[in-house]
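::Encoded backbone::
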Amino acid sequence: SLDPQTGNSGSDHVILYPLYDSLVEWDYTTLQAKPGLAEKWSYPDPTTLVMTLRAGVTFHDGTKCDGAAVRYNLLRAMTNERSNIKSDLGTVAEITAAGQTVTLKLKQPDSALPLILSDRAGMISSPKAMEEHGRDYDRRQVGSGAMKFVSWADYERVVIVKNVSYWK
């Protein structure tokens, strides 16, 4: 699967990270959280995480990566029958979005959440593509990463190409 929410193999990360940007990244030396699609975040209180997303980021299909797209992804990760990452977002009670801002109300304090959002739970897909492809999305994915998906041949190869309009 090339859908970060339904995949369950650690070996797929070598393809997932180039295809998808995550909300949060991490510094390889210190392992500290650093900005990704979320250019900043804060905890105004222990059970509220507010993320401000980068402006101008688009998915490979040309659609906008905004608060509504992030909310769609996080809700799907929490509720989709095929999601393998529901427990990653287990402390999230409610998600709201307005423009480039996403607010997560938590059931309890969770200081690990930013780093959790640097992995599968924070890899953001095009909602338009997920709706269009349904269950086939895991073989027809659309992210916002440095590489774009081209094709998949079972047991042979996955072909990806450079995203010439990459925001970084």
